[in-house]
Amino acid sequence: MAGAQSPSAHIKANIVLYGALFANLGIAVAKFVAAAISGSSSMLSEGVHSLVDSGNQMLLLYGQGKAKRPADSRHPFGYGRELYFWAFVVAILIFAVGAGISVYEGWIHFRDPEPLRDPTINYVVLGIAFLLEGASWTIAVREFNAGRRGLGWWKAVRRSKDPAGFIVLFEDSAALAGLAIAAFGIWLSHATGDARIDGLASMAIGAILGAVAVLLAREAKELLIGEAADPELIAQIWAIVERRPEITAVNHVRTIHTAPNAIFVAVSADFEDLLPMGDAETLIEAIETELKAASSDISSIYIRPEKQSDALVQPRPQMAADPEGSD
Q1: What CA–CA distance (Å, rounded) separates 286 from 245?
Q2: pTM listed for this prediction
Q3: What is the per-residue pLDDT across 73-87, written as a single tens digit (0 to 9) for each?
Q4: Which of 99, 126, 177, 224 could disulfide-pair with 84, CB 3.0 to 4.6 Å?
């Protein structure tokens, strides 16, 4: 078993999460102070937004730690998918707490608006928050972009098996949009003398958070249920098995992610009828070695000799011709 990861290496490996966490904690405090001084509903919503985001990053870090536990008799494929559970919890928190409180607070201020106060503190805090959130967003974009492998942004999110990266990316994008809405709402409230506009801005922030939460919940649900490996890898696995002369046909290749970087592969193949048992065992070992060399993410392999007439036969997958295309 590998030695424990040093604190500096752990932070470097999770730079996106830690960058977002430190930024959001400081921003949340500043926003709450500004909201208390100015009485701004949208600023209070932004404070709740940053506080929820901070909690989300803590939950994802906790989930990553739990997911790294080694396999045991109760969980023979490990605990990797626990990260997907906590990603789903994060989506629920964004919707229930972030979006819910923002909409509720905005409605209260729209129905019973508070007198307008000096907005200067709000603009100062929003400017600082925009710089910090922008830095966190830049880190998230750089890290996510490094793993896109030429895919379009939306397709890369759909294909990603590591929720931490795209959750922070979406959270930071929503945060920047929320800051812009809060600043516009505060400015327009003072320009028109109508404090209800600040409440409307708060509800708009809640709507953005709700949309992000639904999107993240959808992606986390797919991961939690169990997603297959990328089609390109499945096609590669098929080709590696198929080109063996002792294999007369590949019936199907099934894969599932047991963790962001762990894939279980199950192959059904029709072996030559006259192939001796000893030679078949040697062949299976050789195929397993080649498959693991093809992708370090392949953690478990099961190869079943099965007559094609008795097997569930699936069509041979094709390599994706257009990585920028839609799913």
Answers
A1: 13
A2: 0.77
A3: 888 888 888 999 999
A4: 224
